[in-house]
Design a protein that fits this description.
single chain; six-stranded mixed β-sheet; two-stranded antiparallel sheet
């Protein structure tokens, strides 16, 4: 039978990094076998973990009540950020449909990035733009596919900017590519010049800070197949009909 855990001395609050939060989740989900590294030492000193000594002489770790509270707080922050992100993605998709475009959310598209592999041969990269749209036209050369990537936190934007292959995949899938930023998280000149920049203010409007460069392109067959399998955002007349309670033709 395990003996009661030793009391943990008080210590100043820990400014938990992503690594600390990840370790706390791992211990919560597991049997609590110790790693005995510095991250674990800091969590123990902060009172978020505690050691449990068993009768056999070995030790395991257990998440304390303070650790559970820290996990719950992290979950609440992540949900709030995700909610803000999805709300802005919805705004962008609606603006694209208002502009007469056909828009999709949550697509997974495959793009070939030149020069990203060994020997400059390039490689295939999965890209998941927040909003992907094309013009409502029957002329293929006039489709002007556009990708919009939405960022509501500075940390998320900086993480994206550190991944050149991911950014290039967006460009390979579109004739114009945009970053839509929550107002105040960055300046337009922090985003590479090959991307357009929009700012989303609290009033609801999307302000163009820098137009996206346009280039001619045709959608590859793999992208067409992905669009055919996905469900586009409802057109504005369908949305209005749904609010009225009727059925559109």
């Amino acid at each position: 039978m395990p003996t009661p855990p030793e009391p943990t001395p008080s210590s100043p609050p820990l400014a938990a990094s992503a690594a600390h939060q990840r370790r706390l989740r791992e211990v919560w989900r597991s049997a609590g076998w110790p790693c005995q590294d510095l991250i674990e030492a800091e969590l123990l000193a902060a009172g978020l973990l505690e050691r449990v000594r068993h009768g056999s002489g070995h030790e395991t770790l257990r998440v304390t009540d303070g650790g559970v509270a820290a996990l719950a707080a992290t979950l609440a922050r992540n949900r709030a950020r995700r909610g803000a992100h999805e709300a802005l993605v919805g705004r962008v998709a609606r603006e694209m449909t208002r502009a007469g475009r056909i828009a999709w959310r949550g697509l997974s598209l495959r793009a070939h990035v030149e020069g990203a592999g060994d020997g400059g041969a390039g490689r295939w990269v999965m890209a998941m733009p927040d909003v992907f749209s094309i013009r409502h036209t029957t002329v293929e050369d006039w489709l002007e596919p556009a990708a919009h990537e939405v960022k509501v936190t500075r940390a998320d934007l900086l993480s994206d900017l550190r991944q050149p292959c991911k950014r290039e995949a967006y460009r390979m899938l579109s004739s114009q590519c945009w970053y839509v930023l929550k107002q105040g998280i960055a300046d337009a000149d922090e985003v590479p010049m090959e991307f357009g920049v929009m700012f989303a203010g609290p009033a609801g409007a999307l302000e163009v800070a820098r137009p996206a460069p346009r280039r001619a392109m045709r959608l590859p067959l793999a992208t067409w197949m992905a669009l055919a399998r996905a469900t586009a955002e409802p057109a504005l007349d369908d949305e209005a009909q749904a609010w009225l309670g009727g059925s559109s033709a």
